[in-house]
Amino acid sequence: SGNYYNQGEIRKKELEQSCCVLGIPASDVTVIDHRDLPDNPAVEWDTQLLATLVLKHIEAKNINLVVTFDAGGVSGHANHVSLHTAVRYTSLGASLGWDRVRCRVLMLESVNLFRKYISFLDVLISCLLPRDALFILTEEETEQAKRAMRCHRSQLLWFRHLYLLFSRYLVVNSLRLL
């Protein structure tokens, strides 16, 4: 629920506002508030528990495509890495029930610090490197993504302002199939 610094309720509202900016209806937003899944950049989540919750959501919403982090978690955040591990575990483990759902998984590519902060210049590099999917946002889409990020006021620390200005992820995203 984003309760790091005891801001869970604030961050839930910010998420809903951000999704609204992106055109995602509140009915499609699920916030998991589980005591064994604390919002903490140093805590790795239990793979089996998270995999079960993810699969349950995929089945309930009839989802056919999941976009998640790769093993680097984009920023190395332990919760992001845990999510990748759980989705990988789920998709590779028929015993959990993945064989019941027809769902593909794309992983957002983590890039080095230099590439992460060269904004639109990374489009050239990304076009030359191997990947399964490449999304290049228009100027309007980039501005929409920035408006959505600004909804997360409680998380807009100084380094996230730099992210809004220079991050390639607001312009270009390369993904790989799991």
UniProtKB/TrEMBL annotation:
GO MF entries: N-acetylglucosaminylphosphatidylinositol deacetylase activity
Write the Enzyme Commission number(s) for this entry: 3.5.1.89
Which GO biological-process labels does this protein carry? Answer: GPI anchor biosynthetic process
Q: Name one Pfam family in it.
A: PIG-L
Entry's Gene Ontology cellular component terms: endoplasmic reticulum; membrane
Of which family is this protein a member?
Answer: Belongs to the PIGL family.
Checking PANTHER family in the record gives: N-ACETYLGLUCOSAMINYL-PHOSPHATIDYLINOSITOL DE-N-ACETYLASE (PTHR12993:SF11), N-ACETYLGLUCOSAMINYL-PHOSPHATIDYLINOSITOL DE-N-ACETYLASE-RELATED (PTHR12993)
Q: Tell me what this protein is called.
A: N-acetylglucosaminylphosphatidylinositol deacetylase
- Recite the lineage of the species: Eukaryota, Metazoa, Chordata, Craniata, Vertebrata
| Gene this chain is encoded by | Pigl
